[in-house]
Amino acid sequence: MCEVVSELTRTTDGATYFAKRISGVWQHYDLPGEHPLVGTGAPDYELTGGTHFADHLHDGRALPLDPSGALPDLAAGYRDRMRTITTAPPCGKAPPALFVRPDGYVALAGEPDRHALEMVLKT
Q: Which DSSP helix (H) or strand (E) runs through 21?
């Protein structure tokens, strides 16, 4: 068995498989939402100003990305538990709104949706 595993890790596919399993990259949570990012680890978007999305997750708070500024009043009661980013990533690949849980997984992605954000904030 050890020899088989050793041979597998010498191939690109085998090494990729084991790296993903060990690192947790393969992990996907079954969360409500249609956007393909929901339930996955948040992409590390580069933000205007030279920081990266992941740089803002170090303090263990949730991280809403709301460049349109459409949802600030909903988040007001949770300011002690999250930090809102209002600048859009320059890459243009990020969804218009994104809510990332403190563990780095996407709970909400897509168009700003007040009802969906209310549900995410209550859970």
A: helix 12-23
Residues 55 and 3 placed together within one structural domain of the fold: no
What backbone torsions phi and psi does residue 56 show, to the nearest 5 degrees? -95, 0
CB atoms within 10 A of CB 25: 12
Residue range of the domain that includes 100: 31-122
CA distance 37 to 46: 17
Domain count, the chain: 2
Do residues 64 and 97 make contact, with C-beta atoms less than 8 angstroms apart? yes
What is the rounded distance in angstroms from the CA atom of residue 47 to the CA atom of residue 93? 11
The helix or strand, by DSSP H or E, that contains position 65, with its residue range, turns out to be strand 63-65
Q: pLDDT tens-digit profile of 29-80? A: 888 888 899 999 888 888 888 888 888 888 888 888 887 777 666 667 777 8
117 and 60 share one domain: yes
